[in-house]
Write a structure and sequence with these properties.
The chain has helices spanning about 15-25, 35-50, 55-70. The chain is mostly helical. About 50% of the residues lie in helices and about 0% in strands. It is built from 3 helices and no strands.
Length: about 80
């Protein structure tokens, strides 16, 4: 049996715009979120509070990674916050 592929959460254009804004504000590349759990969870909490949604941090990261994989998400290109 073939495992089911996880679908990305559906976001409205306004929700997508807000998530992009919040992600840029963190200065943290999406690939570092699993190592920076506090920031990742904070981003999710702020997004959920602002939108009235109840998405998990894993769902938010999955959405971002899917968009980036399809060249539909921004890259920091050296302007990101460095890990300490």
């Amino acid at each position: 049996m073939t495992p089911k592929r996880k679908k990305s959460i559906p976001l409205s254009a306004q929700e997508d715009h807000l998530l992009r804004f919040l992600h840029r504000q963190t200065g943290i590349p999406d690939g570092q979120f699993p190592q920076r759990v506090a920031e990742w969870h904070h981003l999710t909490a702020v997004f959920n509070e602002a939108t009235g949604r109840n998405d998990s941090p894993e769902d938010i990261l999955h959405y971002i990674l899917n968009k980036r994989k399809n060249a539909l998400w921004f890259r920091f290109d050296g302007t990101n916050q460095r890990m300490r």
